[in-house]
Amino acid sequence: MYEELMTDVENVVATEHEKIKIFEGPRVSQETIASWIAKLERLITNRDTAAVIAHLARLVPEYQPAPPAVAHDPSLWKCAAVGSAV
Fold first, then answer.
1. Which of 15, 59, 66, 86 would staple 70 via disulfide (CB 3.0–4.6 Å)?
2. Residue 70 pLDDT greater than 70, yes or no
3. How far is the C-alpha of 44 from the C-alpha of 52, rounded, in Å?
4. Mind giving me the DSSP string for 34-69?
5. pLDDT exceeds cutoff 90 at 42
């Protein structure tokens, strides 16, 4: 099986082994990452679900949040994961 997960801003770098490749993306400083995490922790502490989701979406543009009803009710997660109607 072969699967390649890559974003538009990543580049593929070859290695000595033909089947091993390195994906390089934009570098982010440790200070920036620490700031993102601190903000996420504040939002979680404040239980601001909408702001947490918005923050994650800014950090990971490919992130596709679950519909609000599913995100707030863990009993529905299994149904959503298999594509069942809720």
1. 66
2. no
3. 7
4. HHHHHHHHHHHHTT-HHHHHHHHHHH-TT--PPPHH
5. yes
User: What's the total number of domains in the chain?
Assistant: 1
- Kindly report the length of the chain: 86
Which residue shows structure tokens 């863990």? 74
First-to-last alpha carbon distance for the chain, in angstroms, is 32
Let me know: does 86 contact 66? Beta carbons within 8 Å.
no
Torsion of CA 73, 78, 81, 82, to 10 degrees: -140
CA-atom Rg of the chain in angstroms: 18
2 occurs within a structural domain:
no
Return the percentage of the chain with pLDDT > 70, whole number.
66
Instruction: For residue 86, tell me if it sits in a domain.
Output: no
Assigned domain for 3 exists = no
| Backbone torsions φ then ψ of 13, nearest 5 degrees | -115, 130
Separation of alpha carbons 20 and 12, rounded Å: 10
